[in-house]
Write a structure and sequence with these properties.
The protein has 159 residues and is an alpha+beta fold. It has one domain. Helix content is 35%, strand content 32%. It contains one helix and nine strands, in the order H-E-E-E-E-E-E-E-E-E. Strands 4, 5, 6, 8 and 9 form a five-stranded antiparallel sheet that branches. The protein has a four-stranded antiparallel sheet with strand order 3-2-1-7, covered by helices on one side. The longest helix is centred in the first third of the chain and has 55 residues. The N and C termini lie far apart (108 Å).
Length: 159
């Protein structure tokens, strides 16, 4: 056998392929874990943005209406707001969430028992509205978000 032979042996080839395979498996696992974590965080961020939009819409109805109603129906949040002329407008704020467990003025919402759940003729000029919105993702019951707030404005009518 000559000492200056060039090339690789079968053992060296198998060892090299094994190392490359191990590195590829570690890299693929890291990427897939990162992608799953990123998808979960994105979903959580979307839920936070959605609940902020809901609260902003509720505040706008509370501050800009003579009276309004909050309606939880078919995994949707709706607001029926009326101005001082009696003109009413129904707005669907958001859909795709389960609102069971939300609380409006100390009344718990349970859409599995009664559908729709309606809080009629809330009058912002004479009372504040205490609300705890609990939203649960319809695709993943483990993913939920709760926010508490008080819808308020200057009380001008104490009836």
């Amino acid at each position: 056998m000559k000492l200056n032979q060039k090339g690789i042996t079968l053992v060296e080839l198998i060892a090299g392929l094994s190392l490359v395979s191990i590195i590829a498996i570690i890299a693929w696992s890291s990427i897939s874990i990162g992608m799953r974590h990123g998808a979960g965080e994105t979903s959580k961020t979307i839920m936070q943005q959605d609940v902020n939009l809901m609260v902003s819409s509720l505040m706008a109805a509370h501050r800009g209406s003579e009276k309004y109603s909050i309606i939880f129906e078919d995994d949707q949040l709706k607001i029926d707001s009326c101005d001082e002329n009696g003109d009413c407008e129904l707005n669907e704020i958001h859909s795709k969430y389960n609102f069971t467990g939300s609380i409006v003025n100390e009344v718990v919402v349970d859409t599995s028992i009664v559908n729709p759940v309606i809080f009629v003729d809330l009058r912002p000029e004479s009372e504040h509205t205490e609300i705890t919105l609990k939203i649960t993702d319809l695709n993943n019951d483990n993913r939920s978000l709760t926010i508490e707030t008080t819808l308020s404005r200057l009380l001008t009518n104490s009836n």
